[in-house]
Amino acid sequence: MSVTCLPAILSIKERYQDIFIKCHEHHIPILKYFIDENNLYPYYDSNTDNLETDPIFVGSMAKQSISYNSSVTIHAPHQCHPVDHYFHLLDGRINVPIEERNYPKFPVNEIDLSRFDLPKKFVAIGPGTTKSICQLPAHTINDIITYCKDKGYEVVILGGKYFFNLQIGEKKMSIGPQFHEDLDLSGCIDLIHKTTLDECTAILDKAHCYIGPEGGLMQFCGMTDTPMIIGINGWTPEMRMPYRHNKLGWEAYPVVPDETLGCRFCIENTIHARTVNIMMQCLYDDFKCVEEHMTLKNFKPQLDKVL
Questions:
Q1: Right CATH number for 119-306 from 3.40.50.2000, 3.30.450.20, 3.30.70.330, 3.40.50.2300?
Q2: Fewer CB under 10 Å: which end of the chain, C or N?
Q3: If you average pLDDT over residues 172-200, what whole number do you get?
């Protein structure tokens, strides 16, 4: 959620320069371009407790600071767009002007990509996902790769391999991208776990388009002008597409389950259900939205608009 938090954080930063952020370590390569790196406090499983001893969190400095937790809220964050949610949560604002909701433009010109032998004409595909409800089947990704190559595009595969634990009550949930074993990446430029997030975003900026599931790479692409084709199951597209150029979903082409699937947009419709994390499981134990509604046939109309 770091990218969707940024519009609200940067709005606050215009009024209050002393902003300190605790964030996942792997988000630093993105946030450091917008927040003074000395004010960023990365955490991971082994150092979370140690952070609390820093002067900014204790003593006289702590008494002068106000702490906002972007993860704990009584408001269901899936009933509105995350950007709007964070403006309300962190800044107490609603009906924020559209130009303030735009994702910040990433300074791609500051990123050196010379170590990558990128083709002149390529599409970027992100086959991984941290949430089961957002996955695309391996056969769909393989078919999309073939379709793009038949259209004359090289294919660059992006993604990262990382894991961290979240405490959910008395249990810990391991979070990290999953990649299908049946993916056929032969003939592709496979950069999985070979880029930093800032390099990945700069590569997305150079791509003809990005294709993948709703998730982090979609958000990073939202900080560029690159068109995107996104498979999205759990929400209506209006709840997730990036704000760019004063428009929600500018150059974003969503692929959604059709109306015959009664359970589509399940997260948006059932966020108050009693379950640990409905993004990690199917409420109906069948994943029909993924298996039957995220195929090349579903993607092709949107692909043909961009390729």
A1: 3.40.50.2000
A2: N
A3: 85
SS3 assignment for 27-89: HHHHHCCCCCHHHEEEECCCCHHHHCCCHHHCHHHHHCCCCCCCCCCCCCCCCCCHHHHHHHH
What distance in Å separates the CA atoms of residue 105 and residue 154, rounded to the nearest whole number?
25
Give the pairing type, strands 243-244 and 247-248.
Answer: antiparallel
What local confidence, expressed as pLDDT, does residue 103 receive? 98
Cα–Cα distance list, 152 to 117, 146, 302 (Å): 18, 10, 17
Count CB atoms within 10 A of the CB of residue 89: 21
Neighbouring-strand partners of residue 144: none
Could you give the count of Cα atoms lying within 13 Å of 181 in the half-sphere of its Cβ?
Answer: 0
HSE-CB of 78 using CA atoms within 13 angstroms: 16
- Alpha-carbon distance of 130 to 160, in angstroms, equals 10
Give me the residue spans of the domains in the chain: 2-101, 119-306
Planar angle of CA 239, 245, 250, nearest 5 degrees: 50
Phi, psi of 165 (to 5 degrees): -105, 140
- Give the DSSP letter string of 175-213: E--B--TT---TTSEE-TTSS-HHHHHHHHHHSS-EEEE
pLDDT single digits (tens) 29-46: 999 999 998 888 877 655
- Mean pLDDT value of segment 276-287: 74
Q: Within 13 Å, how many C-alpha atoms sit on residue 243's CB side?
A: 21
pLDDT of residue 87: 93
* pLDDT tens digit sequence for 42-87: 776 555 555 556 655 665 555 556 667 776 666 666 788 999 999 9
